[in-house]
Amino acid sequence: MEKTISVQQITEEKNIIQKKAAICLQNCNYSIVHDVAISMGMHIVKPEESWDLWWCNIPMDIKKAKHLKKYQKTNHFLGMSEICRKDSLARNLNTMAISFRDDYNFYPMTWYLPSDYTKFQTYISQHKNSTYIVKPTTGSRGTGIYITKSPKKINKYEHMICQLYISKPLLLDGYKFDMRVYTLIASCDPLKIYVYNDGLVRLATEPYETPTQNNVNDRYMHLTNYSVNKCNKMYIDNELFGSKRRITTLSNWLHTEGYDDKKIWNEIDDVIIKTIILAYPFVNRTYQTCFSGHKYTPACFEILGFDILLDENCKPYLLEVNHSPDFHTDTSIDKIVKRELLIDTFNLLQLNKTLKKFVSGEEKWKTQQQTINADKNVYKQRTLRCKENFERQNNLWESKNMGNYRLVFSEKNAHLYKHYFYCNESAIYRHTRRTSLHQESEK
User: Fold this and answer.
1) Mean of all residue pLDDT scores within the chain
2) pTM for this model (two decimals)
3) Pick from 32, 127, 372, 397: most CB atoms within 10 A?
4) Gap between the Cα atoms of 115 and 92, Å rounded
């Protein structure tokens, strides 16, 4: 017997769909984002149409960002390059390490060439047997990366990042590995950071050996990039024992092997928070400039991909931060993890038409008040009350709809990191001041 559907049910389903967000994907080349949006009832629209969310691979142009309506969102913050460019990340981490040497020691010793070449020369003169990994300041997927035990062969005039290679990593089944840890910045005013409980573990495809002159050029042994290792005939596509696995699988392995997995993840969360603090002054300053009209909901969110390596003592090291983590789905694990990540992200952000309707009503009310020359304080007080109400509702919604996310930073634990924010702001001011004085002296 066929199941009959009432007119009321059809109407209710239509209303639910109508409340879903309209999303523009013109600059998104990931089919999974399109598929997830459709599966969740969102409308795919063109740029010239009315949209609620603009999803793009690179941050929105600042001129366009300033014209966002009060209910619209985009999936990138401006200013995130301070931690997503390898050279900027190195500069900022090295600066913070001056004041907090023991707290910002989660990054391999790094030199930005050519400006740090003299310091690099001093180091290699005192450490004859070290191994170094050299990376271009921009780029991804392992392009241009090489490892060397002969630092004198490094071109001192080329703009590169040179790092001390972590030669004693934790091994999984005898292979070197790193983790892609997905992190969501849900808002920057106030700053709210979530970390996803699942992600990707990328393994090298040749058993690991300590770097020597004979094996240092073996990219399949020393690099964990999927784009590199998928080309090796030894690459295995299997969730449990293959060359790419889920973070949940790794966590179970760590627990089974007797490692303190809770301690490891607490330390990784701490690394993520301290790294985001480096970009915060730039992000928040730009945000306040471009999106001052967004009183009720954040105008931006950001999914970052943190690449983390564990050494043999399970100490986490930050390798890099990706502002547009890859959403291609080459493997079955990619499809599962990234689909779940996107679904939980869209749910957490509460993307629907409710805010648009509310903002339209408030704008009409404001126009009416201006027509009758009402006291401006009335509107300010009403706006403040509405903002507080929306914040309460958003916090309640997020607490019930985190999915597989965990909240690692909010106003509740901000006091634990207050001194880092203060020091970072001061360091940025000093750097900006020195740059300005230098420029003035050259005139």
Assistant:
1) 86
2) 0.88
3) 32
4) 15
